[in-house]
């Protein structure tokens, strides 16, 4: 797993255009981050981070992964989550509060717990190939 410096860009809500940089963060498991941006609305600023897997999955693993992953352990980190099904590997877009002072620490804690969960999921599905083919 590679450490990465990721840049949080602000997107315009209506057009989706990037309008500025909010900050950069050192992420220990940066390979898991697919996209990362912030949107501002009347309630404040919300960060959207899309996390994926650390390896390519076979077709049957892709389906089994979505069936077996349990994101309940992550609920304290995010406000909302959605599956992103148009990616090659399973991915989830999480909405989290923006907190400039604690962002790097929060992100690393969140991604660590997410990584633990995907490892558990790999272990749970490893012998299920026959059920999914």
Shape: elongated
Strand content: 35-45%
Distance between the termini: 30 Å
Instruction: Please count the beta strands (DSSP E, at least 2 residues each).
Output: 6
Radius of gyration: 16 Å
What would your notes on this structure say?
This protein is of the alpha+beta class. It has one domain. Helix content is 28%, strand content 35%. It is built from 3 helices and 6 strands; from the N terminus they run ββββαββαα. The protein has a 6-stranded mixed β-sheet with strand order 2-1-3-4-6-5, covered by helices on one side. β3 (33-41) and β4 (44-52) form a beta hairpin. The longest helix has 23 residues, at 103-125. The two termini are 30 Å apart. The mean pLDDT is 94.
List keywords for this structure.
133 residues; alpha+beta; 3 helices; 28% helix; 35% strand
